[in-house]
Records
---
Amino acid sequence: MQDFRRFLGSSKYFVIGAMATGIALAFTSDVQAAAGAGGSGNALSAGTILFIVIGAVVSILYIKAMLTVLHEAADSYSEDEAESAGSYYAAPAWGAAIAGVLAALVIWSYGLSPSLLYLGPILAMISPIAILYCLSQDIKNFKVAHANDQKTSSEKLSGLRG
Amino acid sequence: MLNIELTANPALAPAQGVFMLFLLGLISLGVAFYVKSKLVKNTHDFIIAGRKLGFGFGVAGLISVWTWAMAVMMSAAMTYNFGLSGLWWFTVPNGLAVIAVIPFAKQLREKMPHGYTMGEFVSSRFSGARLARIVVTVGLIFGSLIEIIINLKGTSLVISTVFGMPQATVAVIAIAIVLVYSMLGGLWASMSTSTLTTLFITVPASVVLMAVLSHLGGPAPIWSAVADRGPELLSVTRADVPAVFGITLALGLLTATLAGQSFWQVVWGLKPKEVGRTFLWAGAWFYPIPICLGILGLVGIALNVDLATNLGNDAAAVGPFVISHIGLPNWLVYTYVFVILSACYSTMDGALASLSSLAAIDVIKPISPQINDRKLFTLTRASMLVTAAIALGVVLSGVDFVTIVLTTYAIRTAILVPLMLAIFWRKMTAGGFIWGTIAAIVIGMPLRMALGELVGTLLILGISTVVPIAMSISNSRLFDYASLKQVEDI
């Protein structure tokens, strides 16, 4: 939880703001009136509002992570990264098979029950969360590389002193 | 039973369309400015991002580049035409086509770490064989050009339909915006803005679909209405779909990734160890986009949207039609348009970036090997301008670009197997590569026109497989892939 708070930093106020905006939007009378104009339901249902709030939070974290990666890339622009450093991350064939099979199963499941149609919007919301994880891996790698650099330079300095 | 009156939203004006075009453009421009000032110092940075693209930008960028504006609409169109079988055959091969690049990408990234383009690889692999390089480069250039034309055309159609704007105005504004930010930062700008547009595609798509389901009283009435129209529409096992479009589409998607510079540019732009998992994650997390937006096709079926009277005989319009005719609040219509615009911009900037690398490495450098970096940088950027002008000219002139599509298709399909063989088969010869490709185009294309898409495509692939193997099987001079390491950065 502390890691998450640290990651949020000052953007926690934006997260709170986004949630408040989503809730306020839900109770705005003219939007609700417009929503009910043509359809039999309300476009701005509790489910939609929940998705707006989650979407706002995900967006803030995503943009924050993206900007962090850009800053880190710019900061390490002149650093020469050895191309052969580290082995290739695995991309197992079973991973590809699972992805294909899961996608096929989700589409197949649409035909089983109406409520499974919600899987589409839910997965679309999870997709940027998965990318958020990828961006966090990059940030972690930058931090590890910087920590190693600092360690190496302090060792060099102590060697000079000795 | 769904009881919705389908009426156009009268409140959508052209000014709002222009505002949306510029809004996304300004956001992208801001990112591109930052990238240009911090990360782009020379041609190498511009066309290959200094080979420093990471996991996150790689995954998000690839998803966005692969999500064409038409793909956003086609997932709904295929569902509308064929029910869930259409969505299944549209979606599953799409992600797998990205994942299929992995073994080839890892092999080339490892064996030729300083590469830029497939034309350069073919030239190095076959001891400078000029004809082979020209054929591959022409195929890749046409491929990128057609990506821009199709996306520009698709976006002009959607924005002009929804906001009542002239198509020409939309096309000019859209290409000008994408051109400006692409010329600023090249591949870095493309991947950074595409990372952002992936967010602009997924989250809004999710919210819009939730709102549509809620607006129509939940998924149950939609599902029941579709079931009433025929139970086969809710099944993924319709036997006619693979033959009608499924298999041809799957093969076409494979050629688009394996013989597409937009993907190879990313392969060589990524940090080496990230190549495999980036393509795996990109393929896997691309899936939710068509899976989510395909639901609009079911809504179209449920609402009895008529192909001729409502959609002008173009099923691709079903998504925009549903969104703008069921009485949703305006901000949800804007949100959906934003999804399409994001898909359009990201694919066009990816194509422009890939064309700049082709121009620098396969056109300018071979013609003028001693050119200094400053001049190369200027000409590389100018190549984007020329490409954008050609694409805009094609769209504005209203000429039928079927010929460009067919030429691109012919070359890409014909070079697919020879390229795969060249990457992995040490016996493969330059003669096998060139004659396999030429025979597939010269014999295969007329047969495709006479016998239809499916048989024709399989014949092109068959010819381009048999000829290279027959011509190379007896070759005793095995290629040493380690020699590809001699290729240097520009």
---
Amino acid sequence: MGMTITEKILAKASGKPHCSPGDNIWVSADILMTHDVCGPGTIGVFQREFGKTAKVWNKEGVVIIPDHYIFTADEKCHRNVDALRAFVKEQGLPFFYDPGTPSYAGVCHVALPENGHCRPGEVLFGTDSHTCTHGALGEFATGIGNTDAGFVMGTGKLLIKVPASMKFEFNGKLPKFVTAKDIILRVIGDIGVDGATYCAMEFSGQTISDLDIEERMTICNMAIEAGGKNGIIAADEKTVKYVKERSSKPFTCFSSDEDAKYLSVRKYDASKLEPVVAMPFSPDNVKTARSMKTFKLDRSYIGSCTGGKIIDFIMAAEMLYGKKVKIPTFIVPATVTVEKALKTEKVNGKSLLQIFEEAGCEKPAPPSCAACLGGPIDTYGRSNTNEICISTTNRNFPGRMGSKDSQTILASPYTAAASAVTGYITDPRDI
Amino acid sequence: MDKIIGKVFITGDNIDTDQIIPAQYLNLVPTIPEEYKKLGSYALCGLPDEYKTRYVAEGKMETDYAIVIGGRNFGCGSSREHAPVSLGASGCKTVIANSFARIFFRNCIATGEVYPVETSEELNKSLKTGDEVEISFENMTLKELKTGKIHQLKNLGDVKSVIEAGGIFNYARKNKMI
Ligand code: SF4
């Protein structure tokens, strides 16, 4: 019987010729990623279970990327980064993106592929639920907790259940101003926030092939918002080119067999998709942007692992070019690479930074998770009272961006920027 | 553990990890004992104000409710282990829900902090916060102490062996993996 990409990768990682949904198998990890929020706890578990002097299973396999609470005065946050520093030194780990030094990178899910830690066919575990982002590079990537991560740190292995795959096939040309974010919000709206629980979400079809790697990342990033274990897109020439420019390690590209078994198959005509938003307080509360146009906003936020990549700011800049924002508009590049691109990338001859400045956006924050998850009270862009914020982030649960009284509306960079211009939820095609 | 007798705390569908433990407390590290306790005091403090009763009373470190009852998709959102840990640290023994988000469920089992148990009945509609119940893990039942009414819970399935071993590390040791 045929296998899906996810099954093939997991079979290979467990040293078996075949595996099926529901099998509990031990798989070998290629990469374990952790950050400042879950790193100290993971290290705590690792040392408790394997001993104070234990060594990680593979130095090259552990990647540590502090990104959540970096630009804050909160002392515990600093202490946590110090704990990571001490561990990295003691273990001699080569991949540490240390805040306040030239190696600092920014948000893990964008920094990992940028720095060559993602390769097709591999298994990547991360102590963050949006680790599913990296399925965009044709690998199996999923989020785990500290205890499991401590286990992987010591053994390089983890017991996992093989997920059944759900296929989402998109064909046709995306209309102008309709983006990867609209694709994934549409899917989550259709299947619900638990519609893919325990499943692999495989995205395929011509529309997906036409997307750039960064846009594919937006789609896989939000697989977890439908409860998915992983999101995955078969590697193609674009993937191979992207990876080879950043990594010299060999890798294997897998694709699903013709006769692979899916739990469900959904087909979409991409040319019929529209700009959508997810209203508070659930990512599946999806409406067309147009139908919400009388909804008044207090602020707009462009950033995070979902919506703070280079392509996201290019879209926002296209929309904001020559216009003024009516509400405070926050700009948070995900990584240092994205931050640099704000100066070098141009739209109609002007740099993105210049366009944002002229439109009256807030001065961009340094790269990090910032207000995507609220965080300490002094976090840039945090909703501290009852603000209503349209945001390119990925979650809008109660209190997600700070105060319990605030509200978050999820949207694409085009829609978030168009809405910044009017102060109301706005379909970018209506500007 | 064979049996739990205690009060239930009722929640709704899609209780996400930001409601279980808001992000501003993620600077606390679960493996540091004082911070573990502190996490317990914040368990479920992100629930909206419609919840009239706090899970952990103001100024207290532990809850009066050993059993949390949820609806669908309990624990969705982030992979923060702080979520099951905060519940476990607060004195919660089990969460009973119609379904669980994958990572939360997994973290409950890996840490052994709380038992995640599924039910097909809408117990979060039929029971009220404060009701006393007895849960038997041997029979997988929940008994309402006031009425004696018994509800069947779902079996733990293939995670039972990991739960019984006491988490992923003990399970792996038992099976000579480490
Ligand atoms: S940007 Fe937001 S969603 Fe992404 S890793 Fe940071 S906090 Fe999580």
---
Amino acid sequence: MARPCAVVGIGQTKYKRQLPVTLDGLVREAALQALEDANLTFADIDAVVIGKAPDALEGVVMPELSLADALGAVGKPIHRVHTAGSVGASTAISAAVLVESGRYDTVLTVTYEKQSEGNATWALSGGRSGGQGAGGTFAPWIREYIRRSKAPEHIGWKVAVKDRLNALKNPNAHLHLEDISIEKVKESPMLWDPIHFLESCPSSDGAAAMVLTSEDKVSRSPNKPAWVLGHAKRTEFSTFPGRDTIRIQAGLDCAEALYKKVGITDPRKQIDAAELYVPFSWYEPMWLEGHLIAEEGEGWKMTDEGATEIGGDFPVNCSGGVLSSNPIGASGMIRCLEAANQVRGTAGDYQVDGAKVALGHAYGGAAQYFAMWIVSSELQPDFT
Amino acid sequence: MAFEPQENDIAIVGVAQTAAHARFDGPEVVLIMECVNRLLGDAGIERDDVGFTIAGSCDYLSGMPFAFVSNVDGMGAWPPVYESHVEMDGAWALFEAWLRLQMGDIDVAMVVGSGKSSPCNAREVFHLQADPYVVAPLGLDPDALAGIQARALIDAGKATEADIADVVARSRAAAAANPNAQVAGSVSIDELLAAPYDMAPLRAHDVSPKADGAAALLIARRDRARELTDNPVWITGLDHRIESHHAGLRDLTDSESTRLAAAGAGVADGAVDVAELHTTHAHEEIILRAALGLGDDTQINPSGGPLAGDPVMATGLTRIIEVAKRIAAGDASRGVAHAASGAALQQNLVCVLQEGA
């Protein structure tokens, strides 16, 4: 039967371009930081779970093989997850399953991408998206969201500015745009109408890592744990007649299953901070609605009122989010570990005061893969 | 002694596989759909009855990043499903599904492995598994490294070229009874040894013929397994380990990671009637047999094994299916299935299967 699992170590590289560092160096830096945070060494690790987006992004097939040495995995199990853009969060969840199943006490999980070694937009333009890239796929859906919700066009600009201002507080963030403003965003080139250049995520390098451990081993690590209260994943087909690509059933189902597991009845009230996968600005209000945090058509009002700013009642992407750093394969894990940072009180200058319960989220493919988890400073928080 | 399953034990309750096609002209998703439909039909359950689905495949074989996304169409995802994917052989998907079911809240999982290698040059693709900075530029692909490994084995006095040819002759003879095999038939050791070298001391027939294919299985927790089948095949041990990527740091004539996985899975806890080994190069059988501690009383690769057909990314999962089929049919009571990844057996998975009520 499932047993509790907690995050006891977190490691992140900087997400700027890292040309002088090998893939091995990149993942090892994040892994060593996470181990140091957990006050453990590779010898304490029972299994490694690694995730990244398509192998073609760096041109290395099944990189768990060549990275096994750098990750201290020799003699151990190493497991490799790939679920498109959601992979970082899926990897965190798979690692949690290894612990919760009772088979492995302490698991190191690492995700990465090194976009400077390849051309991600080429890769993202292959296959199902038919040459249009991620922005080309999502732009018509964003337009449809705007039509349905009657959201004013400045909502996207506001998200773009908010996340970049948050990123100024995060030393790991790729983008540090000191002079970001609504004017700058709306005057930046239009890439895929209505998505401007500054409403899009950057191409980043970087690795993110966590150490997860079972309840009886938590006390080995001196720093505060983030308890994994629950996780959920849902997938639907990328395309079929009648598919609602705005209010996506898999996203609704995923959130519903997660809240039920954790015992959340009013997510806006009971969750203190959220890290949502927002690669294009408009996905903030879209996921607020798409994951049952706001009523249908009301998500953009939360953004407009400042509810999603640090200091608002539902802060979103205090770390700067995907809009400020996007090492694709790691981006979902960064959402999960930044949620953990918030409840451990280790989020530095972007800490939400007194955060006890936080949500980490990622999506992928044609907005068809969802992976979410909720972490807390307490194993059994009181939601009443 | 008969295995007495506990509440948290997991059994294989259904299996399906396609033929190992030298070239399948339809898309990969059709291969998957063929397996999934048969699996659900045989078990008499609906798609909704499956609580967790997980697949293993390799985008690079199709030359298309996110190729696995299309595979979801073959597995069913409407209404939305709880699902995941490993960029590994389907045997590793089974590993995660097996752990997931042990959490207790879900009682049936579906595991799929699929690969369509015919559109690509698989040897070129798997060359890209090598470390991109210092190994890949040497041209050291898995077949080349296999040749070096076979040479080391012969030099160490652990095998002869005739021993390696014997593995191929046995595989092909056994494959005659396997309708899914790609290569089968009687061939003598002398005929095999007369063939020219490819990656000396290996010859072309020592390398598995890459194929297009899929395999899938259903697993269930004890009580649900008993409802779904009269012949559950229990997974009594499952472990996998990796060793160094750098061949120079390894004893290539042994498989330390297989030994560790075998110990973790409890291979030595009982007699092994049958073993299916993921041997993509003939000499690997000799190394694996020693590392798994298998004696002459264990039947090795009665399906013919990968040397008779290698549906890449489904090959490891197929080993598990081949053992499970024999136990379910009552031809064996305990067996070992092995899956491998990487050059020269870098990563190995060992699964122990057993009969039991």
